[in-house]
Amino acid sequence: MTVNQRRLTQHYFMTAPMPCPYLPERFERKLVTELRGPEANGVHDLLSRAGFRRSHSIAYLPACSECNACVPVRVACQGFKPGRSFRRIQTRNNDLARSIVPPSATQEQFQLFNTYQDARHGNGDMARMDARDYRAMVEDSTIDTSIFEYRRTDGSLIAVALIDNLSDGLSAVYSFFDPTEHKRGLGTYIILDLISEAQALDLPHIYLGYWISDCRKMSYKMRFQPLEGFKNGQWVSMSEDSPEDGA
């Protein structure tokens, strides 16, 4: 069944214009649809391959009339080989233990989430989330979702990644980590670990959400080569201007 065929069974809605959180003086609109019922996983699979992302029980796609800056991107895992800087990050985090657990919110996770938000996104909407909001973000999922927890040798939680499981890969919904552990490069390490997990499971892709060329906060995604972007209805190769090891 194609994405177009599946869309016939879905209801889609356009959101009202809102200030863009990434590009100043621009407004964003999204095409949204609900993920529900016994076919939610299959619908989510198809929509992910068409550039959609998930939040709670909603799948969405940027649909701005005067802007197409948001490009869905995914890592082609089977062709990925870490360069020297990536291998150094892996070595720095060899002491961490990762476990995959069901999507259930805990107070320990929420405390780390708060610490991360205060340090990295103090003025953002997510910094105002309370424990109930965090629980909803983690648990309000109608599709196959997991949490990757990363712990130090003493058992303390250092990083968390909320992951959707797709038939063709893993989708990184959201991740956060101890912001005081600067030297570890935890944000990069989580993606490297997801790539390793996908390779072990023989899954071809890691979906990283949207990339915007003029948004510095998203520039890191281009380092994970080979990278593919969804443009004009198909996934195409996207190359970076400078080699990964030069970063």
Could you characterize what this model shows?
- With 247 residues, this protein is α+β, with helices and mostly antiparallel strands.
- The protein contains 6 helices and 14 strands.
- The chain has helices at 3-7, 40-49, 84-92, 107-120, 131-139, 186-200, and strands at 12-14, 18-19, 27-28, 30-34, 53-55, 58-62, 71-76, 97-101, 145-151, 157-166, 169-177, 205-211, 227-231, 234-238.
- The strands form 3 sheets. The chain has an 8-stranded mixed beta sheet with strand order 8-9-10-11-12-7-13-14, with helices on both faces.
- Helix 6 links the parallel strand 11 and strand 12.
- The longest helix is centred in the C-terminal third of the chain and has 15 residues, at 186-200.
- The protein starts with a helix and ends in a 9-residue tail after the last strand.
- 26% of the residues are buried.
Summarize the structure.
The N terminus and C terminus are likely disordered. The chain starts with a helix and ends in a 9-residue tail after the last strand. The protein has six helices and 14 strands.
Features of the shown structure:
disordered C terminus; alpha+beta; single chain; 247 residues; 8-stranded mixed sheet
Map the helices and strands.
Layout: H1 3-7, E1 12-14, E2 18-19, E3 27-28, E4 30-34, H2 40-49, E5 53-55, E6 58-62, E7 71-76, H3 84-92, E8 97-101, H4 107-120, H5 131-139, E9 145-151, E10 157-166, E11 169-177, H6 186-200, E12 205-211, E13 227-231, E14 234-238
